[in-house]
Amino acid sequence: MKRFVNGEEVELHEEAVVTRLSDRLIVHTSEGAFSAVAVRQGDAVLISYKGHQYKLEKKQARARHHGAASSGELRAPMPGLIVDVRVKVGDPVERGDTILVLEAMKTQQPFTAAFNGIVKELNIAAGDQVKDGQLLALIEEA
Fold it and tell me: For residues 132, 26, 59 and 41, what is the CA-based torsion angle, rounded to 10 degrees?
């Protein structure tokens, strides 16, 4: 099954077993079990999994939108509380660096840099309540 993930077309393989709990998903893979959060936003699904955020779209939906997830935008997948901010505007970041941590539905979700870059915008601070879809930070590719 082909889908657009963070703006790139990929072939998805069903290698994981997903169990839905009341407030999150548990993804069972050959590497172990991991917590994930998925929220529908229009035709897309925003997923926070293992410290990364993904925007999953069907090809038809992709044609109507541009991939903000691959643009360096870090957006809240649901309302929550910012519990940690590890960067400031102007800081260089490397792919995989933790930028901030959002707590939602009793689960902490770290947001990481998708690529090497510079923190261009930081619209939150520790202790802030955020809304679904709110822009939290913007990373500009180096």
Answer: -20
